[in-house]
Design a protein that fits this description.
By secondary structure, the chain is α+β, with helices and mostly antiparallel strands. The protein is built from 6 helices and 12 strands.
């Protein structure tokens, strides 16, 4: 009787071991289910290569931005002030309350900034000697620079009447320059562009040129888009086209809100005359 019990115990132990091996093999044969990580949606705001924004949810079902599936451009914003800072003081805009004119700083995101302004032209230290600048405003072509900024070979800005140092500071290459020779931040390009484009600066300042998002009430809080967010200063005439900037493909009109039969309300002026 004891022998039978012993044999039964041994048989049970062997069976359990065999089951464990078979189970382990079955687990090994099954494919490992790995959750695919979804790539974040990134869309450009005014022109490709300038400012970008990553889509994320402010709260469930409410994205911070909606991107166009056709062009990849930002269509509308759930949070128009994401990543913005107060704009610096501007002439004739002193009456805007603090914090009501906002911009998105781009200096840290400019691809060539660490190469050009820091690695080569840092302008820091007594050992730095500014290079000898040509007097005829026709700099000698430098293959390295032309490789980084191909548009320099056919610089259309100013129709061959301006050159690099009309916009970039002579010694502080991480800065732009105004009419007085004072350095201007890359985050405030309107202070530079207004040197030549005074009419456009006036229109931009008055809100009839450029792009703004935010509160549409008078004196409301708004994000102001600066010149270089919409315009590429190195390719302002779009190369051989020489007829202005590249146009975006038009988007279809937005859907009407639920319950609205048509858009005739847009034909009525909000202020009675």
């Amino acid at each position: 009787m004891k022998k039978i019990a012993t044999y039964a115990t041994i048989l049970a132990m062997c069976g359990g071991a065999l089951y464990s091996v078979i189970a382990a093999e079955n687990v090994a044969e099954q494919p490992v289910q790995v959750e695919a990580t979804k790539e974040p949606v990134v869309c450009f705001e005014s022109r490709k290569g300038a400012s970008e924004i990553t889509q994320q949810e402010i709260k469930p079902g409410w994205p911070n931005v909606k991107c166009s599936p056709t062009t990849g451009a930002a269509l509308w914003y759930g949070d128009p002030f994401e990543g913005t800072v107060p704009m610096g003081k501007m002439p004739l805009l002193e009456n805007i309350p603090d914090g009501h004119a906002l911009v998105k700083p781009r200096t840290e995101k400019l691809a060539l900034m660490p190469l050009c302004s820091t690695a080569c032209h840092n302008g820091v230290g007594p050992q730095f000697t500014p290079p000898t600048l040509p007097k005829d405003k026709r700099p000698t072509p430098i293959p390295t620079m032309e490789a980084m900024v191909p548009d320099l070979k056919n610089l259309q800005h100013g129709r061959d009447r301006i050159w690099c140092m009309d916009c970039h500071h002579t010694t502080k290459r991480n800065m732009l320059v105004d009419n007085f020779g004072d350095p201007v931040s890359f985050d405030q390009p309107q202070l530079l562009c207004g040197k030549c484009h005074g009419d456009k600066l006036r229109d931009w300042r008055d809100g009839i040129h450029g792009k703004r998002i935010g509160e549409f009430t008078t004196g409301g809080k708004k994000r102001w888009f600066t010149c270089t967010e919409c315009h590429n200063p190195h390719n302002v005439q779009d190369g051989l086209r020489n007829k202005g900037f590249v146009q975006l493909q038009p988007e279809p009109p937005p859907q009407l809100a639920k319950g609205m039969k048509d858009a005739k309300h847009e034909l009525v002026h909000p202020v009675p005359h």
